[in-house]
Amino acid sequence: MAAWDGFQTVLNNGMRYLVVAGVGKLMMFLGRILIAVGSTLAFYCLITFVTSIKANIIEPLYLLVIVFIISYAVGALFIGVYSLAVDTILACFIVDEMNQG
After folding, report:
1. What torsion, rounded to 10 degrees, do the Cα atoms 90, 94, 97, 101 define?
2. With CB atoms 3.0 to 4.6 Å apart as the test, which of 51, 57, 72, 89 could cross-link to 36 if both were Cys?
3. What is the mean pLDDT of the segment spanning 26-43?
4. Residue 76: how many CB atoms within 10 A of its CB?
């Protein structure tokens, strides 16, 4: 019965879910990119300005690509939790709005 109620809630408020999902996907993509770029930039500063590290690195581009890929994956994991929270808050808001009437 609860699954049917949840299905009807989503069906009756499809446009809200669609808008939140669209905006959420955009924000989450930007979040993943910002996390990856920020981590890569921090790593670049580390290997460029620390002389003991700089002396041991010949070609930093490969290292930067690896750091970007790993930090993008880690960012995707963290943003996935945020995505679930946004969906849950929207569902709670809609149920609360229905029960106030």
Report:
1. 180
2. 72
3. 95
4. 16
Tokens of 15: 């446009």
d(CA 97, CA 12): 13
Note down the domain range covering 23.
Answer: 2-99
Rg value, the chain, Cα: 21
More confident position, 11 or 41: 41
- Closest by CA to 53, choosing from 61, 45, 64, is 45
Instruction: Report which residue type is found at 3.
Output: A
Which residues are CB-contacts of 46 (< 8 A; sequence separation ≥ 6)? 53
| Residue bearing tokens 């499809």 | 14
- What pLDDT is stored for residue 101 in this prediction? 59
- List pLDDT tens digits, range 5-28: 888 888 888 898 888 888 888 999
Helix orientation angle between 2-12 and 60-99, rounded to the nearest 10 degrees: 100
Q: Is 50 left (phi over 0), alpha (psi -120 to 50) or beta?
A: beta
What is the average pLDDT across 36-40? 97
